[in-house]
Amino acid sequence: xxxxxxxxxxxxxxxxxxxxxxxxxxxxxxxxxxxxxxxxxxxxxxxxxxxxxxxxxxxxxxxxxxxxxxxxxxxxxxxxxxxxxxxxxxxxxxxxxxxxxxxxxxxxxxxxxxxxx
Length: 117
Hints:
This protein is mainly α. It contains two helices and no strands.
């Protein structure tokens, strides 16, 4: 996994962990019901912003991953094209060598036949 992806995952985990920790802490804290409700309301009011930040972070990570995947795909296609071109060139060279060898053998057979006549 790339470094930017690990950083985004870490930040997302921290945000989720912080939210869960805050809620659990609020629920077990020794406060009156009214105080707890006030703190929960403040926390609930902050949740949309936290969710938006997390969403933005996840979108950035998805974009980076997508860009990386496209670059890797393009590089793989380029290497494949080069390999195919090299294979075609090698096949053509081999075919020329075989053809030249066959022509040379035919010339030798003709010369041998001419000597016997």
